[in-house]
Fold each of these.
Amino acid sequence: MEDDGVMPKALPTSRFAPSTTAVHADDDLNNVEDVAPPLHVSTTFRYAKNPDDLVPAAAADTSNTEAHVYSRLTAPNATRLETLLSSLVNAPCLTYSSGLAALHAAYVLLNPKRVSIGGGYHGSHGVLGIHQRLCGTSLLPLDCPASDLHPGDIVHLETPLNPTGEAYNLVEYAEKAHSRGAVLLVDATFGPPGLQDPFKWGADIVMHSGTKYIGGHSDMLCGILATNRSGWLARLKEDREFLGSVMGSMEGWLGVRSVRTLDLRVKRQSENASKLIKWLDDCKKIDSGDEEAELVKAVVQRIQHASLQHDDMHWLKKQMPNGFGPVFVIWLQEAWMARRLPSLLSLFHHATSLGGVEGLIEWRAMSDAAVDPRLVRVSVGVEDWEDLKADFIRAFQGLAKERDTSPAS
């Protein structure tokens, strides 16, 4: 990682495995006897009592993690979280009040004339809409020819993609962007540390909605930007002071708690998702005679997820060697089935968002006006996958019964 002079020294990422790094990368910040880091709620911090120790702002060392002044600049809990994350994402990083706040900060920093972007999270398109209105930013398709890009433009790549969980080849888009002097911005929310390292494949700046897998317990908002590009992090930190999009101390404290188990959680969730998807996909391929398969085929039209991109495995297994992500999409045979399915499940909460330890399912039409009404997004939790499978079977049986007993049938 490049030292930008604005981050505390993080544990060398090559020294330990990610699960160890997540527990010990912030050891240098242990300045109290508490094993569990304390929560600091103060918004302002005393200057040195001795006048001779006072350092004016113009001469201040921005990498001094003990020199907190005002929490809109830095605070102990957020600084500790940034130290941990910098080791895990393999680049210096900053935290923000939400994922969209982080994305907005990236666009303020880079101020592109053109952005090449595909589908994905509708909130990201909302942020870009603001920049179109304020700055006249033009949008290009994600698959535009390289000749349409110019120096300073952005290729905005979300992988895996929201809501489908499908993946894109980072190397391909990095080469395309860099051949024209453009920047590759990667939204890696669906591929958190432990599953994917976009910097290894050419990303210039990486964004995470830390609300999802970094937080992992559906109880905090957080955004993250990371970059190895010289000077960018210092400018981002200056901008954040005036954008006012710093995360709160409570969220910083919750984030530290969550990151400790990040590696354990995302691998279990991804493994669970892959098993559920394989079961569903296998059922769709069975010709006849299997009662469970017939039930699935009667209800499920198709499934989307990176693990089903069989023709892409030559690059995908390298890009995501530890699993293909815990989010996938089920297309139901009819829209009313998608609307009813979440209410028939017992182990999945019907709610938006994703990444928590608990299973979530969303009839996506509830939060995305542009989505097909037959689609449900599934965020798999850490529960036993066989229990989750049994829950789906019961729910599918309920849908089949409703279909067979409705007057229209």
Amino acid sequence: MKEAEIVKHPEFPHVTWDLPPAEKGKLAVARGRGGPFNIAYEVHGHGPIHMLWIMGLGSLKTTWQRQTKDFGHDRSSEFSCLVLDNRGMGESDKPYLRYSTREMAKDTIEVLDHVGWTGEREVHVTGISMGGMIAQELVGHSLRIPNQAQHLTPRQGLLIPKRVASLTLLSTAARIVNTVVRSLLRFSLLLTGSSGQDQQRRPLQGYLENLRNRINMLIPKAIDEQVAHMKYLCFSDAFLASPDNDGNFPTNGDRFAAQEILKRKDPNNFPRHGFLLQVIAAGYHHKSATQLRELRHKVGRERIQVVHGSLDRMISLPHAEVLIKELGGPNEVRYVVFEGVGHVIPMESRQEFKQLMLDFIEKTRALDAKDALNGGAGP
């Protein structure tokens, strides 16, 4: 379906689900870090198991609606789900300054503090794509905040590895790497503007193709062309062509197109400068093998899982292989590949992803009980 058809479809006004949050607000963050500016957040559910969902590049907190429904509404007595719009998108402010995944992690920690999720092993963290990069930063730096005298002082309590009950790194990377030699040949695509149709049969991509994809997102195009490009990057062809899993659009691809059209029609939700600043943040994200080993040590190897789709065309599978290798390998850290699935696993494989998360949370809760018996010992 094209935009003209989609906006007239009776399902279009309901593409963002009516899921009333238990708590909603905007928090002024980043004092002493270029702020203050507001980060919009919602908490869904009121259960004792606290789940933080960190969204990726150019996406809104409502993109987690399937997970907020599955955990924060259908099982609201068990789970509480915190979602937020990263700086530059949605209902959050869009400051004109340098963005980084580290600074966005600091924004997130301030929101966690505000909602009171400060206990040891309290938060189950899931980050997708750029959100997974932000999640890596949550446990890898110290946060400095201004004291009453407006001097910057370290606050070690905001280094939060011990708050993390589990860490799910979903469709993400430690850094964008040049995965294969043939990526050098793709440089010609950047120079010539070739459509690279031969590359569409190859889900493997390296740094240059990833860069080309990011640049293409910024080039003004008709909205139907924008959406078609995003569909290709984010999902498998089979999923896009299948009947709508969530309602009455003809296909899953049409439903995703409706979500993208709705988002892009509101320039406040999806401003060009906010998107560009997030692109820069994701592009400059870098975690070394040493830093990843430190992350594993701080959080605990049994509390980390790396999850990726084999057909991910946004951040290709070799990025996950680098990530899992430098975290210690699949014998150290859980590694799950969704075969035949693209970048947005929570949408494309909703039920399987839900069960994966339930199983992993149950596993880590057993670790919590074991640690309690051992007097709080643990990594």
Amino acid sequence: MQKSLLRVPFTGKFPEPLIVPRSANSLTGATAALTHFLTARPLPSIRHGSSPSEQTVLLTGAGISVASGLADYRGTNGTYTLNKTYRPIYYNEFISIHEARKRYWARSFLGWTNLHRSHPNAAHYAVKELGSLGRVSSVITQNVDSFHNTAHPELHTLELHGYLRSLVCLTCRNEYPREEFQKQLAALNPAWAGLLKEALESGVFDTEDPEERRSKGLRTNPDGDVDLPDAPYSTFRYPACPTCLKNPPVLPDGSKGRIEVDSDGAWTESSNAGILKPAVIMFGESIATSVKQDTERAVDNAGRILVLGSSLATYSAWRVVKRAKDHGMPIGILNLGGSRGEESFFEHMPSDNDGRYGVRCCESLEEVLPRVVEKIRRG
């Protein structure tokens, strides 16, 4: 397979996280500081051309879903921490290399079951309650697991990097449910379906401990990816877009698209259209302009921003917080490890800061957020 020249950003270790205010160095102290942050009146110094809002916009990352049994990237047991050789597929590889797509879909086929049967955890439902209490205006998430939509459908969520629940055709742009696609993959790949069945029966996905999963021969990565060392990925097959197959589209150059399948219905390399891709933003792929604009509006309509479970290693996430800083908005970060550029977000904090002007703490999300909800309720 052709090796990409692009590199995954910030795979190294960040500096130790700050603690702001100093009293936020325990579960009790962090709860108090976050409560002050979320209930403080808007600062008159906010500069985004409208009346300051009392509500907070949330930016969430992989860390909020770890308690649901999903892997993160840069935590203690994160993929980049435990597997130094791991690299995700890049957009240019996926759209142009048939063998790369085989490898991607084989690994996704193995990992989908674990993702599909996982559920939102206490942190997601605490976000729901913060919305109900009027403290949170919207959620911007880097995650593709759809847990926010499941936990709080009434609280607006912007999925910055897309979602795994659907696929999108690269030609006609129609979307299809991932659950049905999984059934098609199983039918096209009976040997792989048998392998997955054996893995499920062995209980390899029953543990959330990545080391235990590795001892059973699997490496689980973020976004529903499972690495099975020495697996025959080149044997894997995947279906074509059903819409393009039925009605071949006209391509941008004016020619008619060609979608050819084998006797079982699998997409073949002689095709030039009808490729299905997960509805996520892959590394090297641009985020849609409409999503960027919606994200900017969500920040502009809030009075402060709170980051939950993100190292801000990707530029698309970091720029969201940078926009809030440029507006003079208070910034909060709740993440177990360090976050990109966090020292610049907490410069010149007032000496009487109890969390109102900014908070940085390092506690478990599923422990501290429900406590914050209860403290706010009690007034």
Amino acid sequence: ALIKGTKRRDTNEQDRMSRQFKDWRDYLVRSIEDHMPTKESYTLLHTANMVGLFSCVFIRASQLSSISNMQAAEIKRGMGGLHGNKKGALMFRFNIDHTSVCLVNCHLAAGQTQTMHRHNDIAAILESTPFPAEHDIASRRTAYVSGGDGSMIIDHEVCILNGDLNYRIDTMSRDIVIKAVQTKNLKKLLERDQLLVSRKRNAAFGLKAFAELPINFDPTYKYDVGSDNYDTSEKHRAPAWCDRILYRGRGKIKQLDYQRHDLRISDHRPVSGTFRVRVKTVIPSKREKVWRDCQKRFEAVRSRLERET
């Protein structure tokens, strides 16, 4: 009876969450339709959810024909990866022309002292192989980097990783953190930010390969819902920059802005980023010609060196 009751509660919770996600999706679709110019209309390319995670990807309608190789995946981390957990990642990858892009929406382990748990979550996500491998050698060389086959997140040329990463501010009391926020002494707090410190000092940390624009906004967590007051509940959680956006793709992506928004419907303040991405188009016949020319030059240099020795 207990098992049946638990299953029924789980099902009811899933149904409730599914309705909420659908309502959010429909709201986002309507908002974009209402506010974007008709000549720049956007269409919903992908949507996915996993308990506490929700992703919606829109694309300009005129670019839809440039999209290929779409794949979605998820990794569950909370509760040992069991059904119903609220931690993990939603991943969506695609090619735009001949450039591979991977979007990762994360929710990592919570708690002031759970830094290593969060590091382990990141390692599990980045070291996983959630996507099918590309077996065609030419396609691999065209779309992926570092000899990758597209099965891993870091195989992709451009990657944006965001979400409630849950990293906190170390070795400071709540009162000291709030006072620093009120006096705009963010530098003092950022020097103790677990994510920034780990990226700087831990050579093996998975997010060291990613970049993040400097933070110049107040901590985004934890607020009393509906107000501008940091947590006044019994737990009195210290403020922190839990909500983050990181990216990788040397020479292919540039972040133009990084900001938070003062919406009061949650205990988090949302953050946003605007990016400019360089997209390549490969013309097979021209690439083949360049490849042959490179081979000829290489052979010429090798022959010269052999004669000289």
